Amino acid sequence: MASNRPAVRRGPPCQLTSQPKHTISVEEWEAKAPLGELETRSIAAIKAASERTPLPLKFSSYDAGPSRPTTPHAVQRNRPLPPGSLNSRPGTPLSGSRSVGLAAHAHALHPKQPIQTPQQFYDWFSLIDRSVAHSQEAHFRAHVANVSQHLEACDGLVDKIELVEGEVEGMIEGWRGVEEGGKSLKDACEKLLEERDKLLELTDEIGARLEYFQELEHATRMLNHPGESLVLQTDFLYMVERVDICIDYLNAHRHFREAEIYLFRYQQCMTRAMTLIKMYFVGSLRALSVDVSKRLSEKARTDRSIDVSPTAQMHLLYTRFKTVSSQLLPLLSELERRARSHPHELSALLEECHDAYFSARKSLLVGRITEEIKGFDPTRTELVELTRAGCGYLKQLCTDEYELYCSFFSSGENKLYQYLENLCDYLYDDLRPRILHEPRLTALCEVCTVLQALMVLDVSSVQDDDEDELESGSKRSHDDADELSLDLEISRRTRRTEGLGRLHISHLLQMVLQDAQTRLFFKAQSVIQSDIRYYVSKPEDLAYPDILVAAEKPTTAIENQEKASVSELFRLPSIEKQDTWYPTLRKTVWVLSQLHDFVKPAIFEDIAQEAISLCRQSLVAAAELMLVKAPLDAQLFLVRHLLLLKEVTQNLDLAQREGEASGSGAGSAGGMTDTLALMLSRTTSLLPDALFASLGMPRADESIKEAKHDIDHELRRACEAIIALCTDSITQPLHDWAVTPSSPDTAANLPSKPQAAARDISTAFERACTTELRAQAGRLRLYLEDARTITARVLLEHVRERIGDAYEAFWEAGSGRGLGEDVMSVPVVRRLLIDACA
């Protein structure tokens, strides 16, 4: 039977979520839990009992019974029917006795009245037929009724589910409304909080900016009631700091309303505050100066015969001032800081403080300095002692004044040095005339030594202080803020005072040193002109070689010590025998050794070139005087002194030194030794240029411009003269015999026995080599001793080569005339020459 009920509308599935469960299939269940026979029967019984599922108790109203009466056979549906009951027709009526007994309980199908007509029978038969048909469809109607009950129960459940779903949807809608309302409320609250924070921040910013304007009232009120001790109050410096911060802030924010007016008023307050500091400092300094001057005067009047002790002076002039400085230093530091920040408004006040300080100190110290200088007795004291004592006193005085000044100020270095220079002028006024009129070159050098020693000590200490300051300065860091409140800015600002560093004594001594150097320069020029250029030789100055022979005697320790200073400067090999030098060379070396450390390099080079050039001219002039009596001694004298002068020139770096980069060259000892060894290993004749190259001299074609080149030129000429003097007297007879013509026209001019003449010449030659050449070699070594023995060896080598070449020409000429066996052979002669020069 089909149902006409509409399809049930189900609501949205429930949104509840649960954990997924593991399901077991029937096969797995059968495998894990097999059933026995007893279990199988039990399940069959349960199945049979549950074929008709009852409705829940709350739906029991649906079991009240069918709406229509059941058929008579309905009660017997579940019982077995007797045979013959399966007939579709009803049974016959019961007997009369039973019918009478059951009359009270007549069936509805029984006719109420006896059937009498066929029509009644047909009616009753139709009723029976309908009852039979109805009884045959009873189980269908029962099933339909059962299904109807289930449908009604399901409809009831669906209605309740729909009701619950409606309630749930209403609750969800309510929850969503509450959520949306809470979110709106939350957003509104957060917006209100943000607005409140912005208002608070704006209020703080306005308050922070107003602090820079409100400070004016406090500063004005404090400055309108000044007292003598206002600057000493703790709040005074704090107020000045706040005013300075307000000025900086308003300078950076001039676009604020009325910022210019407040800025002008703050600047007025700052000027008034700094003026109070200046007035207090000047007043305190004036009172202290008057008190100290009065006490010094009282002590002087009390003890007229006894000067005020240095301890009392130090106490009054320095200790008292340092005691006051501890109170004034913070105030002056504030004034210096403000003057650096606002130079146009406050620098004049700081200068007034500087002027007042220097004036007070100068009034107290001038008398003391004058008395100290008078105690030195400048008119009688030795210049060096006066310089040492006076500069030492000034150095201590300037150091004390510098330290005292630093205990008050940290700026004004230029004015401080002007003040110290004014104090030094009292000594310089007495010292300068003495320096400018000092005739002794050694005294001027000692004065420069004293001054340079003080300056060098000052420079070395300043360099150490600069390194320490650089190391500490590299560890500092600065962090500036853009806009901070007034109190925070004050707490973050540092109060470090920049010091003046260290006193530079060299600045104060520079003027005296320049005067001494200028006088030293002119005095050295005067000595060069008088003792070198216009020096007149004495007979004892030219007594060579007697001077060299006398110098072989041992010298005393004192003389060696005096010569060591010159030897250390010029590094001359034979400096210990400087008594054998010509006076002009000795004076040149002495003057240059005096000037080397006390004048500038450029000036020293000019005067050294002049001195060396004039010395060379004097040596040449002295050699020309000796040339008349002893030509060889004259040339050896000139070579000896020119070599010494050349070494002086090289050590002073007046010309470009050969081999400077490599450390060796033709002019160095190593270069001379190597060249000489090469020359001694050769057997052929040597060119004159090789000799001069070995001595570190240029070739003849090089330009001669400077003093060193002039020395090399003279040295070259003198060496050529020495070689000629040593060889000409020995080789001239050989040369004359060798070049004599052998033609028949001149045979009459030859001696009758040429062999005898050749033998005589050879014998005379041998005698000259053993006597004259040996004497000349000894004289060369006497003049050119020590390291210049190399020069003597080179000269003797050339002499031997020239004599050997001359004898070889003589022997070749004699061999052509048949005299080869009557004279000595060339190897024998060369060996003879080596022995003679050894």
UniProtKB/TrEMBL annotation:
Any one cellular-component term (Gene Ontology): Golgi membrane
Domain Conserved oligomeric Golgi complex subunit 3 C-terminal span(s) in chain numbering: 315-655
Pfam families per record: COG3_C, COG3_N
Superkingdom to which the source organism belongs: Eukaryota
Segments passing through the bilayer: none
InterPro entries reported in the protein's UniProt record: COG3_C, COG3_N, COG_su3
Region (Disordered): 1-28, 56-100
Domain Conserved oligomeric Golgi complex subunit 3 N-terminal: 143-286
Topology term for the membrane: Peripheral membrane protein
GO biological process assignments: Golgi organization; intra-Golgi vesicle-mediated transport; intracellular protein transport
Polar residues compositional bias, start-end: 85-98
Alphabetic keyword roster: Golgi apparatus, Membrane, Protein transport, Transport
Compartments it resides in: Golgi apparatus membrane
Family of this protein: Belongs to the COG3 family.
Name of the protein described by the UniProt record: Conserved oligomeric Golgi complex subunit 3
Species: Tricholomella constricta
Lineage: Eukaryota, Fungi, Dikarya, Basidiomycota, Agaricomycotina
